[in-house]
Design brief:
single chain, about 675 residues, alpha+beta, six-stranded antiparallel β-sheet, four-stranded antiparallel β-sheet
């Protein structure tokens, strides 16, 4: 079992965690039902982005990947991702298997060399690998795409295919230059790949159609070499040519497995006699369903039984974005929430259907509070505490309620099937329904009343409920391993497997009850001291008594105001008229050289230039603020405003490391450099 290798140039974020949590849930389920399963992964450590990041930090690539490895393994551990082996592609095992596979393919005539045009920057005097050059996608024309694959349409391409390319280092237009490169004969595997994809009943239908269309359009042979400088493995017999990262990265799956068992020859035999299942994101479909199976087949390695492809993670309906404040690292998530909150949320959304997952903190809170806390957590705590209070923690015979037991047993079979088919959302839902049955059964029998007349019967009712709780601890274990472990501890059982799901726990003494999971409290909004709105400048005149001041008439949607602004020398009257600006509407009115200013527009000042904050689409009167903050309605003085540190970053206004926006639209700071103070 593998997850795609995370790139070693940055932190693990909540988008990455979709896949690792998905894989971990499935691995834990397989172990529960008694399968012999190995979960291997590694940091993807080669290629241009590693070199770029290391250069940025002024350290060696080896130092960068060592640092990132510690961070990645820490984050995975914190989110209860249990690898059998987590390794690195910059390893002796990966070099061994990369050379082995390369040489086998070459011997069979599947690798050849030819002179090709490469992208070369005359300013920086170097060949530009795919991550050093950007341009428009040759297929869909999406702008700012790297030279290997389009993030918009997922089509693969070469750096020389890009439309209007530019070097990311100097922004200059590169030239084309001739260079000898190594190619993998992917086109020769078209019929094999088509047959394998069509006959593989495990692959998702939408992925099959996607990939078959690529094959229908014609597969191009794959350039598997890169010119130096490049951080990676040298191609055998070459000094300044390296394996393209997409050759040795997936081979890292095999290398990690070999590192685990400590024997490369044995690792190859085990790989070839095992079922291989990959979990990947849809952005790397081409590499894993065409390039990778062709490489494996051509070099004599076992192909994957299944490749489970998941969609992207959006946050509040949008792509994760640092500038929008919707980018959260694994570490940042844990500052406010528990790791199992995220595991539960993703599990409740994940299925084998290829669909994106939207992450919404409000929905997270509702799911944890209304499902996990109020349903499963409440039932288990309720029954354990009742047994401890009334029977000193002891259960004896069980109430043989055939209706309840049969109903639950049918759902258990469904849950097993849902886990097997990667439909974790249905597995979670059926588990909640079992807890509902237990709650309803307990409530309808009213044991707190019945105990006065028939204590023995109540103890039997409690025994059935304890068995339901025991079964719940097993059913939810793949999703919530810590929750499950704590529940089993309270039930005075441990290390239960799927085969232990039954109603046979009798004559047993349970442990002390504890709250299993706490509610997520609604985060109180912080107060942002300004009340900002979009305004349109409708007239500009010279101040009658000041050479550097303009008098502006502005439209705030529901009202019109007058502002005095020191923009002379930075903007002409014509440049300002009809511009949409950002105005502080709760600033105490003041007279500047005898003319009243009813608020203040925001502008950046970097010591050299002054540039106003502008916006394109938002209408006058649109509220401007920060997500998670509430705008103040209280009036503030100019002196109070001056104490606020609002700065320009990425040409946008930021306060307390958060972007100031008009709804979902970003605001632009004109003319000034990053770091400029907004006054």
């Amino acid at each position: 079992m593998t997850s795609a290798l995370p790139y070693a140039n940055g932190p693990i974020h909540i988008g990455h965690l979709v896949e690792y949590i998905q894989t971990d849930i499935f691995v834990r389920f397989l172990r529960l039902i008694g399968k012999d399963v190995v979960y291997c992964c590694a940091d993807d450590t080669h290629g241009t982005p590693i070199e770029l990041k290391a250069n940025e930090l002024k350290i060696k690539p080896e130092e960068l990947i060592a640092r990132v490895f510690k961070e990645h393994t820490r984050d995975f551990k914190n989110f209860l991702i249990k690898f059998d082996n987590y390794y690195s592609t910059n390893s002796k095992e990966n070099r061994h298997f990369s050379d082995l596979i390369f040489n086998r393919l070459k011997e069979k005539g599947h690798i050849y060399t030819k002179e090709i045009e490469v992208t070369y920057c005359e300013h920086d005097k170097r060949t530009l690998p795919d991550r050093y050059v950007k341009g428009k996608c040759p297929k869909c024309k999406a702008p700012d795409q790297y030279g290997d694959v389009c993030e918009s349409c997922n089509a693969a391409h070469k750096t020389t295919d890009l439309v209007d390319p530019y070097c990311i280092l100097c922004k200059n237009k590169p030239v084309k230059k001739s260079s000898k490169h190594y190619f993998f004969e992917l086109s020769a595997f078209s019929k094999f790949l088509e047959k394998w994809i069509k006959e593989n009943k495990n692959l998702q239908p939408e992925i099959k159609n996607f990939v078959l269309n690529w094959i229908k359009d014609g597969l191009e042979d794959w350039d598997i070499s890169r010119d130096g400088p490049y951080f990676g493995f040298n191609i055998p017999g070459e000094k300044d040519k390296y394996y393209y990262v997409w050759l040795d990265a997936p081979i890292g799956y095999i290398a990690s497995f070999a590192n685990l068992i400590g024997d490369a020859t044995k690792a190859e035999k085990e790989w070839n006699s095992s079922e291989i299942i990959h979990f990947i994101g849809k952005d790397i479909t081409y590499f894993h369903l065409l390039f990778w199976p062709a490489i494996l087949h051509g070099s004599g390695f076992n192909l994957p039984k299944d490749i489970v492809v998941h969609g992207f993670l959006t946050v509040n309906g949008e792509k994760m974005s640092k500038s929008r404040g919707t980018f959260f690292t694994a570490e940042e998530f844990l500052e406010k929430y528990d790791a199992e909150h995220l595991r539960y949320y993703y599990a409740s959304m994940l299925s084998k259907k290829l669909s994106d997952i939207d992450f919404d903190f409000k929905v997270l809170r509702e799911k944890i509070n209304n499902e996990l806390v109020a349903n499963i957590g409440n039932f288990c705590y309720r029954i354990i505490s009742f047994v401890n209070k009334n029977f000193n923690g002891e259960i004896r015979d069980i109430d043989d309620n055939e209706k309840v037991i049969d109903e639950i047993s049918k759902k258990i079979e469904k849950i097993k099937s849902h886990y097997e088919n990667y439909n974790f959302n249905f597995a979670v839902n059926e588990t909640l329904l079992i807890s509902d049955i237990g709650n309803k059964y307990f409530q309808e029998n009213q044991p707190w009343k019945l105990i006065k007349d028939d204590k023995e019967k109540v103890q039997e009712i409690c025994a059935l409920c304890i068995n339901i709780a025991k079964n719940l601890s097993i059913l939810i274990q793949p999703v919530l391993p810590k929750f499950s472990e704590e529940l089993q501890k309270q039930l005075n059982v441990k290390n239960l497997q799927w085969k232990d799901i039954d109603f046979g726990l009798k004559n047993h003494k349970i442990g002390k009850e504890k709250i299993l999971v706490k509610k997520i409290e609604e985060q109180e909004k912080e107060i942002f001291p300004l009340n900002l709105k979009v305004a349109k400048i409708i007239d500009v005149k010279d101040h009658p008594e000041a050479d550097k001041l303009y008098v502006l008439q502005i439209d705030l949607g529901t009202e019109k105001r007058q502002l005095v602004a020191g923009l002379k020398g930075h903007y002409s009257k014509d440049e300002l008229k009809n511009k949409k600006i950002i105005v502080v509407t709760n600033l105490k009115y003041a007279k500047l050289r005898g003319v009243e200013s009813q608020g203040m527009l925001l502008a950046g000042d970097d010591g050299k230039d002054v540039g106003i904050l502008t916006i394109e689409n938002a209408k006058p009167g649109t509220q401007v603020g920060i997500e998670g903050f509430e705008n103040s309605s209280e009036q503030i003085s100019f002196e109070q405003f001056q104490k606020l540190k609002i700065i320009v970053k990425n040409n946008k206004p930021y306060f307390s490391s958060k972007e100031i926006k008009a709804g979902s639209e970003s605001i632009k700071a004109e003319k000034v450099k990053d770091g400029a103070r907004i006054r």
